[in-house]
Write a structure and sequence with these properties.
Order of helices and strands: HHHH
Shape: elongated
Distance between the termini: 35 Å
Number of strands: 0
Radius of gyration: 20 Å
Structural class: mainly alpha
Largest sheet: none
Number of helices: 4
Length: 144
Amino acid sequence: MTATHPTHAASAGQRTAKQNWAEGLMAFAAVMLLLAGVLDIFRGIMGIAEDDVFLSTRNYVFAFDLTGWGWVHLALGVVAVIVSLGLFQTAMWARVLGVAIAGLIVIANFLSLPYYPVWSVVMIAFSGFVIWALCVVKPDRSAD
């Protein structure tokens, strides 16, 4: 008498729940990074135009000119949008750069916190979700 044990590996045509979960997290990270990038582009344009929405704080340690912060946010936003397009293709380079650019967005928003406090906190949260989603997904090597 032989005993049969169920295998945990999916057959060629089936996807596991773990694979579906990973694919969903990648799509989530791509959308969130795209959204953060577009919003950072708009924030950069507002900073370059020296819009009246921003606060001016005296004696801030990381005080840059508002136009300088605008260029920083514009550049980060453009790179974030490009990287998010790579995430939609599930490219490994995009995952690595996605974590890096989201980290830079967190740092830039933290340093420019006094200029636009509520929005900086929102962008830090968006970027935190992106970092989490990209770091928790493990690539499935069994499908190769």
